[in-house]
Amino acid sequence: MYNLHDTVVNSAPREMSGAWTSTLYDYQRYLSIYKIIELHSRGKDYRVAFDYFDDIMIFNHSTNPTAVDFYQVKVSITGPWSMADIVRPESKNRPTSIISKMYHNISVFGAHANYITFITNSYFKFSLPSGELTSHTSKNICASTLDLTERKKIEEAVDADFPRAGGSFCDKVYFESCDLQPSGQSHTIQGKINDYFVSIGYEAGVPVKALTDSLFGEVSRKSGVENSCSDIVDFYNKRTICREWIQDLFLKATTYPMIKEYWSDIQDELKSAGYGAPEIADIKKMCFEYIIKRAGGEPLFNKYSDEVQSIINSHPNLFGKRDTYLKRTDKLSALLVGQADWNLADDQLLSVLIVHVVEDHHAKAANLWVGAIAESTGGAR
Asked: Do 205 and 309 fall within a single domain?
């Protein structure tokens, strides 16, 4: 029996990167980000794939998954979805209906397929055993809770396309109504990212718009791959985003408020070193631009970051306790002499080094604080 990795690589996806309208294209990407932020907020490991076997795939582990959830994304601007919409044949080619396309993932992944979910900006009008209908207050509906007539429609539509041994699979089928709407979706995501940072203690200063744009660009890039994947590493690189990548992105973004916190001292040092107000304003702006571009995963800025951080890590005693910020940047600059592909103006280089000096200072201050707490409590946790 194939493991989950084998199934991903050796099975042919039903469709990849289909033709989308601009509205659905944007909505699917923003909804992917919406789900990523939800997953990240829960603190569990995950990996999310885009436009491969379905619009969104969510694996329960980033490197050794044992289960995967599938999401079929649809936008409605005309009102709620009925069961007729879900089971109606849309194509002459099998699978013909929305529900059959969803079930196709169960037929391929078997026990590894955890849930198959139809997710939309609208809501559903399905019959319940009580005789009532689901409404806009029903956010996440399991098909097994619906009236028997509705469940039969689901099973009959699937049976028309797939030979099954019988038995119900409705406990694996979900219908989710998402708060994200096509209008103002970027602002909704910015709010969701901001809420996440507030929940972990960052009240202000995180560049949520830049993060939203970076995430949208990365999801779009991972969604636009039309060829298949040769192995699981190729699949991960081309099609997915994992928790570690998001965590690294968010950690880089938190330097933004750090610069604001320490800027008064840095500004005083720059003034003492002979920098004028316009130059200081430009350096501050370049610090923020570097943070944003690095957080967005731009290769050149990640190269700068990796090389500077490598020097800091290789020289743990490089900075003295009484060194000013500019004294520290001078020491880093001296060690960077001869580095290739660093075609930066002096002020641009200074802004990069200021960011790393602030990060290093902040990290060491945090470690001292943790150490003092541990000493005062006798090492108790």
From this structure: no
How many domains is the chain partitioned into structurally? 2
- With CA atoms as reference, report the closest residue to 194 among 181, 180, 211: 211
SS3 state at 94: coil
**Model pLDDT for residues 246-288, shown as the tens digit of each residue:** 988 888 788 877 888 889 999 999 999 999 999 999 999 999 8
Q: What is the distance between the alpha carbons of residues 60 and 46, in angstroms, rounded to a whole number?
A: 5
Tell me, yes or no, whether 247 lies in a domain.
no
Tell me, yes or no, whether 248 lies in a domain: no
State the average pLDDT for the chain: 87
| Residue 267: HSE in the Cβ half-sphere, 13 Å Cα cutoff | 13
Encoded tokens for 271: 């003034």
Q: Could you give the CA distance from residue 351 to residue 285 in angstroms, rounded to a whole number?
A: 9
**Structural domain span for residue 313:** 254-376
DSSP letter, residue 296 = T
Q: Is there a domain that residue 292 lies in?
A: yes
Say yes or no to pLDDT of 378 above 90. no
SS3 357: helix
Rounded to 5 degrees, what are φ and ψ at 146? -85, 170
Residue-wise pLDDT for 231-254, tens only, equals 899 999 999 999 999 988 888 788
**Do the domain assignments include residue 319?**
yes
- Contact at 8 Å (CB) between 325 and 354? yes
343 and 236 in a single domain? The answer is no
Q: What's the CA gap between 301 and 377, in Å, rounded? A: 41
- For 113, phi and psi rounded to 5 degrees? -75, 110
